[in-house]
Design goal:
The complex is a heterodimer of chains A (about 260) and B (about 270). Chain A has two domains: about 180 residues, 3-Layer(aba) Sandwich (Rossmann fold); about 70 residues. In chain A, strands 5-6-7-3-8-9 form a six-stranded mixed β-sheet, sandwiched between helices. A three-stranded antiparallel β-sheet of chain A has the order 2-1-4. By secondary structure, chain A is α/β, with parallel strands linked by helices. Helices cover about 75% and strands about 0% of the residues of chain B. Chain B contains twelve helices and no strands. In chain B, α2 crosses α4, α6 packs across α7 and α11 runs antiparallel to α12. Chain B is elongated. The relative contact order of chain B is 0.15. Classes of the chains: A alpha/beta (about 260), B mainly alpha (about 270). The interface between A and B is medium-sized, with 25 and 19 residues.
């Protein structure tokens, strides 16, 4: 098991008609229960790489080279949760529907499982009602629903595409803690795409740095952050602003420590 | 029910259009109760009478009460207008969704089909169909089944293609929902409002077509009352008895205005949401 990666990307190259190397030659592996981070600025191809794993490339972009092997189920969490839900379908029903198709249970049973998922994600009871639509929910609640939808697929690998970028700062942390807590309970592996170093450093054991469609550096999180080899990685690390009035305090919070190191 | 009422109260055009339609349909349905005259039986003793308390709009060249014919004609024309839309409405939405959602060769094929049909003028097709199947209602149904779906297919295709690139469709796909479910349960409710708005305008267009065909003599055949044949029958007397042609024409205008008010109103309501 340990030697068989759940997810294996080998020299993946993605191209459109106008740009032959949107992503070139990207390789990485994810083993069961492991979390890796894919970091880089917007436009570096990290989201595209993630999307290619589930065959979700936008029209006009194709995989021209390399191999993607996913040995298990994958599910994805999107950047903007409100846009990841059908605006005209009650959230409970969206959840129950996915349970129905992915876990192959009856409609009735799927509704019960959907309610359990709502509870697991700490969503209020009011969402059990069938007249709750995505626009009536807060961003954080929507993202919890999106996570619930992903979990309804019983994923082996959870692909997170900047899952906290569109959320309020105060909610970001709750969502991250939720993802980590559920990972301990359910044991999925994670690929975490973000431009936020602070987030990845606390979640991921390995980091892959992308720039202009290429992997420029990779390695264990702490050594990589402590001793970046590539100037781009160094730039990313330097771009994390320390909080000046807190930097003298004894114990910086867990999310920030990795970034400061 | 309550939501419908609030929407109506906040949207004057919807309220006005609906009232106008209800009035028109009500009069058409209750025609035998409203008028005691026969819409088809000639009465040679009372030809071309001017409006009076007995004959509200006078009588036509065969002595039939004009008002009676007018409201019976509403039955014929409105019935065809609605029935002829059902199949094109459904197939158009379905084909449009498929073209927009699947894209690629499905889109190419359906676009080819719409472009082919759109190349033929509507009336040319009606004349050919009328020639093959005989004039009358049947020709209108067949023709509209052939060409009526195109408007819906085009509108819905554009909408579906734009939804296609939205995250929730991609999300539904990665979550493993079958395409059929995504199309019918998720995409359909999202494109339906726009299609209904198009339906309102297109019904007015179809009504004009029905009337035109009646006028040309390849639509509804006499003695069945129809606004189009009434306009053409009144034509020789235009100089002296202008209302013979004008009133059926006004009925068409009235229905058209009612339909576009409803369409406008619905568009307003759905835009606000």
């Amino acid at each position: 098991m340990a030697n068989h990666p759940l997810l294996h990307l080998e020299n993946v190259t993605l191209a459109s008609r106008f740009n032959p190397s949107l992503v070139s030659d990207v390789s990485f592996q994810v083993h069961a229960g492991e979390s890796i981070g894919l970091i880089g600025e917007s436009g570096s191809g990290k989201s595209l790489t993630l999307r290619s794993i589930l065959g979700l490339l936008p029209s006009g972009i194709e995989q021209t080279d390399g191999r993607i092997q996913l040995n298990g189920r994958g599910a994805m969490i999107f950047q903007d949760p409100i846009r990841a839900l059908d605006p005209l379908y009650p959230v409970v029903k969206q959840l129950a529907e996915v349970v129905h198709y992915r876990q192959q249970v009856s409609r009735k049973a799927s509704h019960v499982i959907a309610l359990e998922l709502l509870e697991l994600l700490g969503l209020p009871d009011s969402l059990r009602q069938k007249d709750r639509y995505p626009h009536q929910l807060s961003g954080g609640q929507c993202q919890r629903i999106v996570i619930a939808l992903a979990l309804a697929c019983k994923p082996d690998v959870l692909l997170c595409d900047e899952p906290t970028t569109a959320l309020d700062v105060t909610v970001q942390r709750q969502i991250l803690e939720l993802i980590v807590r559920l990972q301990k309970e359910l044991g999925y592996a994670m690929v975490f795409v973000t431009h936020n170093l602070a987030v990845t450093s606390s979640l991921c054991s390995r980091l892959y740095v992308m720039k202009e469609g290429r992997l420029v550096e990779e390695g264990e999180t702490l050594p990589l952050l402590q001793n970046p080899q590539h100037p781009y990685t160094r730039m990313l690390i330097d771009s994390v602003l320390p909080l000046p009035e807190l930097s003298e305090l004894s114990e910086p919070n867990e999310l920030k420590r990795g970034a400061d190191a | 029910m309550r939501r419908i009422w609030t929407a109506m109260r906040n949207t004057p055009s919807l309220l006005a259009g609906t009232l106008m339609l209800v009035l028109m349909v009500g009069v058409a349905l209750l025609a035998p109760l409203i008028s005691s005259f026969s819409p088809t039986e000639p009465n040679m003793g009372a030809i071309l009478l001017p409006p009076s308390s007995e004959h509200w709009l006078g009588t036509d060249q065969l002595g039939r009460d004009l008002f009676t014919r007018l409201i019976y004609a509403a039955r014929t024309d409105l019935k065809i207008m609605v029935l002829a839309q059902i199949i094109p409405f459904c197939t158009g939405i379905l084909l449009g969704m498929m073209a927009g959602y699947y894209g690629k060769w499905v889109n190419t094929l359906i676009t080819l089909l719409t472009d082919t049909f759109i190349a033929f003028p509507f009336y040319l097709i009606v004349i050919i169909v009328a020639f093959v199947s005989g004039a009358g209602e049947k020709g209108i149904y067949i023709t509209f089944m052939l060409v009526g779906w195109i408007v819906y297919a085009r509108v819905v295709k554009g909408l579906s293609a734009s939804y296609r690139s939205q995250e929730w469709i991609a999300s539904a796909q990665t979550l493993g929902l079958p395409n059929r479910t995504i199309l019918l349960r998720h995409l359909l409710p999202n494109v339906l409002p726009q299609a209904v708005i198009v339906l309102m305008t297109d019904m007015a267009v179809l009504l004009v077509a029905i009337v035109t065909l009646g006028y040309l003599g390849i639509g509804i055949a006499p003695p069945t009352p129809d606004w189009g044949t009434m306009i053409s029958e009144g034509q020789p007397f235009l100089a002296t008895k202008w209302w013979l042609s004008a009133t059926p024409g006004l009925a068409v205008v009235y229905t058209g205005i009612a339909l576009s008010l409803v369409g406008d109103g619905l568009a307003d309501v759905w835009r606000r949401k």
